[in-house]
UniProtKB/TrEMBL annotation:
<comment type="function">
    <text>Component of the Mediator complex, a coactivator involved in the regulated transcription of nearly all RNA polymerase II-dependent genes. Mediator functions as a bridge to convey information from gene-specific regulatory proteins to the basal RNA polymerase II transcription machinery. Mediator is recruited to promoters by direct interactions with regulatory proteins and serves as a scaffold for the assembly of a functional preinitiation complex with RNA polymerase II and the general transcription factors.</text>
</comment>
<comment type="similarity">
    <text>Belongs to the Mediator complex subunit 21 family.</text>
</comment>
<keyword id="KW-0804">Transcription</keyword>
<dbReference type="GO" id="GO:0016592">
    <property type="term" value="C:mediator complex"/>
</dbReference>
<comment type="subunit">
    <text>Component of the Mediator complex.</text>
</comment>
<keyword id="KW-0805">Transcription regulation</keyword>
<dbReference type="GO" id="GO:0006357">
    <property type="term" value="P:regulation of transcription by RNA polymerase II"/>
</dbReference>
<dbReference type="InterPro" id="IPR021384">
    <property type="entry name" value="Mediator_Med21"/>
</dbReference>
<protein>
    <recommendedName>
        <fullName>Mediator of RNA polymerase II transcription subunit 21</fullName>
    </recommendedName>
</protein>
<dbReference type="InterPro" id="IPR037212">
    <property type="entry name" value="Med7/Med21-like"/>
</dbReference>
<keyword id="KW-0539">Nucleus</keyword>
<dbReference type="Pfam" id="PF11221">
    <property type="entry name" value="Med21"/>
</dbReference>
<dbReference type="GO" id="GO:0003712">
    <property type="term" value="F:transcription coregulator activity"/>
</dbReference>
<keyword id="KW-0010">Activator</keyword>
Length: 164
């Protein structure tokens, strides 16, 4: 690989790292948003469970049985879950506000396309280098096997000559 090709490959990798960092920041925000949405779903499910467990029973006029009394918890679970749901909703709103704007300039879009093309070119070159490296590695392994085999044969011959 000549210096110019190596320099271009290095530059393409650097550009890919910059783009990757941008994507990573975006992915981190999306991950945070997904975690917050999951937490909100969990809060809502748990609040429904608490309502089912501690809500006062309803009485029906045509039903003869009187509803059983349910002991009310010492804590106000309704208020606790209302606060949790409200705080998580605020967190979701903040995370959505910090997501990047979809309006990307034409220059930035062209840069992304160029970076993508350079990345694909660099990946192809890297694949070729890896294949060439694997071929060389196999040749080296074969040479080492041949050397080891030759040494074993030399030792055998030395032992035979020493015994005569």
């Amino acid at each position: 690989m000549d210096r110019n090709t190596f320099r271009k490959l290095k530059e393409a990798i650097k550009n890919k790292l910059v783009l990757s960092l941008h994507e990573k920041l975006m992915a981190d925000r999306l991950t945070q948003l997904q975690d917050a949405v999951n937490a909100q779903a969990e809060n809502i499910c748990n609040s429904i469970g608490v309502l089912q467990a501690y809500a006062p029973p309803s009485s029906f006029p045509d039903f003869e049985k009187s509803p059983r009394k349910i002991e009310q918890p010492k804590e106000d679970y309704c208020q606790t879950f209302a606060n949790l749901i409200a705080n998580t909703a605020k967190e979701i709103d903040v995370l959505i506000d910090f997501l990047p704007n979809e309006d990307i300039s034409q220059d930035t879009q062209e840069d992304f396309k160029r970076f993508d093309k350079e990345n694909k070119d660099a990946a192809l070159k890297l694949e070729k280098v890896v294949v060439a490296g694997e071929v060389l590695l196999e040749q080296i392994r074969k040479a080492l096997r041949d050397i080891a085999q030759s040494q074993l044969e030399i030792q055998k011959l030395s032992n035979i000559n020493g015994n005569i």
